[in-house]
Amino acid sequence: xxxxxxxxxxxxxPLFEQAEKYVKDYYDSFKSNKKEGTITIGGExxxxxxxxxxxxxxxxxxxEALGLPAKLAAEASDNFLYILARAIGKADAKHFVxxxxxxxxxxxxxxxxxxxxxxxxxxxxxxxESKPTPDENYFLTYDHPYSFExxxxxxxxxxxxxxxxxxxxxxxxxxxxxxxxxxxxDAREIMCRAKGDQACRxxxxxxxxxxxxxxxxxxxxxx
Amino acid sequence: xxxxxxxxxxxxxxxxxxxxxKDFLDxxxxxxxxxxxxxxxxxxxxxxxxxxxxxxxxxxGPELARNLADGVLAIK
Lengths: 223, 76
What we know:
The complex is a heterodimer of chains A (223) and B (76). Chain A has 223 residues and is of the alpha+beta class. In chain A, 51% of the residues lie in helices and 12% in strands. Chain A has a four-stranded antiparallel sheet, sandwiched between helices. In chain A, a hairpin with a 2-residue loop joins strand 2 (38-41) and strand 3. Chain B is an all-alpha fold and 76 residues long. Chain B is built from four helices and no strands. Chain B has helices at residues 4-17, 21-33, 45-60, 62-73. Chain B is globular. The interface between A and B is medium-sized, with 12 and 14 residues.
């Protein structure tokens, strides 16, 4: 079997192949009941949300609701969406791990990027420079090609954002990995298509080490 | 002309919001207290402190937001 929904370093591939089969079966159980107005996957309720409404329009509405100037509104919505996505990522990881019955951190991680793909957030490309260990040295560097946030932003405003926009991509992946490795990690987007970069690239690790990881990745990871 | 209370609140906010202070504070008063900024009064301090806390928590973090709100409540 060849991995088709995620890109990972070769040594991680076997665990991701197992996860891909599981996640595919899970999402193949998608049911939309138009008489009830429900969507279920694996017996769980899901909802569909228009990406642009969530990622682009929300900032303006939050700013208005809280009485924030535009600059602070953007910052507040970024922080809010990061926190929200991180919480969802953590909860989803817990759900998948319980269903799969896996125990190894990498095996727990594996369903994350694939589920991420199947639910339309982005493709995930984890680089071999990554060293995800369940301790303070945890380090992950990866791209999210086709990030829904970058696409939504570019579609609405063009690739002219002054800063990276894929905060939910960062939050969700950080939440999933925190749950999988038992270490509270955070993620930061260091390049973004919405600001004209060639890729949406992230680093993940302990919050206190993100500056170090960002500098290292910008210097050493070339794709 | 700004009220004495407004000026004191402004001073509390300034260390957190710097050059954005006037924009931030005036919008808070307009949006949540439904009055012009120069008419904000000491009696508004509880409602204003509550909204300053809610609105700033997502930008400066919950601890600093709490400190800001406490600072406004402590104004004499």
